[in-house]
Amino acid sequence: SPRGIAIAAIVNLDVNGATVGNTADTVIPAPASQTAGDGAFDLGRATAIAATADAAPVGEYLASLLRTATGLYLPVGRDGNVVLTIEPGHPEGGYDLAVAPDGIRLAANDAAGLFLGVQTLRQLLPPSSADSPASLVPPEIAATTISDHPRFAYRGAMLDVARHFFGVDEVKRYIDDIALLKLNVLHLHLTDDQGWRLEIEGWPRLTQHGGSTQVGGAGGGFYTQDDFREIVAYATSRFITIVPEIDLPGHTNAALSSYPELTCDGHAPKLYEGIEVGFSSLCIDNAHTYEFVADVLGQVAALTPGPWIHIGGDEALSTPDADYLRFIERASGIAAATGKTVIGWHEMGRSPDLPAGTVGEYWSFTTPEGDAAEVSRRFVDRGGRLILAPADVAYLDMKYDESSALGLVWAKGPTSIEDAYGWDPAEVIPGVGDAQLLGVEAPLWTETIVTMTDIESMAFPRIAAIAELAWSPRRTRDFTEFASRLAAFGAHLAALGIAFHRAPGVPWR
Ligand code: TNX
């Protein structure tokens, strides 16, 4: 088979003194099909990127990556030997990439597909960045033919900006980090007990007061609507869809503290800086509550070009059951009236009445607990699909092992890289296979996560495992082989300055 042919050393000097990149055998997530060719393409001064108008933004993006990585200023125009083509006939969401000694051809149905192909091409180059040695000599790319497409349409990461706040630049950096792995969704958990992070017109105290603190106290912060638009625009430039989450009716202490009329007794609770869950609830039979929900969800939907709006619904432990069901019915209707497809954590499946097509996000374990499987299947029964984020394998905020300084352990203890890789989305919920799945997501809750380095070291490398489960065909699954590709990927992460955890069990270089 073409796989397993020479896993090339990541930076070799060939006889001409050029740096030779990885072979296709080192790409993460593993492509659907790949064949090694003969020879190599020399990236040098004679290289030019050819792109038609619709492909030009991806051409410019590739040129800017190569400028940083190699110091080469490649022109983007009508002619060239690196040809980006948009044409019909490729598998949904996929691309074809051919690297030969006389040129590179990348083709896809749309610019999003080309962007994904560029992420593969990056990993075929020697790991490099503006200040690394690979920039001193023009690199080569070993000849290869790749035909690739994703297993799932929704390949997500989630960042909790409520427990600890992360600014626009940090979110942009995470967007670039996850784009490397062909993830195409960033779910932002914008509100929780500890903070309200998005400006809502007409409700200024949500951010002025409710956004003023975070877990542990110091800091806090929020996005103005312009900040949020900037995040959305940046994500769009990376072909990543933002899914905004406003968590309702629990996880709302910051809102209740800002507007006492949202409580049942009219008393504003204090701001909260701890990490307990399940103690707050909007007042369910209160007209203000629905004015609030309609105003917030309306503005969030208007700010977000993507098709989805997430309304939480998890861990509403202090909302009586009957109230919860009444609230979810009403709030999901308000959310659907914005024109978006509603997403909710799997508890929302308990509601007898959800808008058609509502998507459930499953966060129980790889062996479902309690009624999690049953309530999750109800989304499917009502025409929706599921996103899987099983907490024992996909939660990036779990410790790697007992010695991890950061992270929690409630989801069946620590989660190693083997754990993150060692499951299959089609085997979690009986009766839910690929056809019922929208995709997979890796949430990063931030009770213990404070800095960008914390984010990256908890996410990487486990997010690479989740990305591979979301993208690659099942037949490519093999931990030993994955670990060897991960070692090559780690060299790229190091060159890019992405802090990653050198998890044991991987032959890091
Ligand atoms: C559970 S899973 C939560 C979050 C916490 C997380 C910590 C889910 C939908 N809710 O509120 O941040 O555990 O791991």
TrEMBL record:
GO cellular component: membrane
Enzyme class per UniProt: hydrolase
Catalytic residues (UniProt): E315
SUPFAM superfamilies: (Trans)glycosidases, beta-N-acetylhexosaminidase-like domain
Keywords: Glycosidase, Hydrolase
GO molecular function, one term: beta-N-acetylhexosaminidase activity
Domain Beta-hexosaminidase bacterial type N-terminal stretches: 26-149
Sequence similarity: Belongs to the glycosyl hydrolase 20 family.
Protein name: beta-N-acetylhexosaminidase
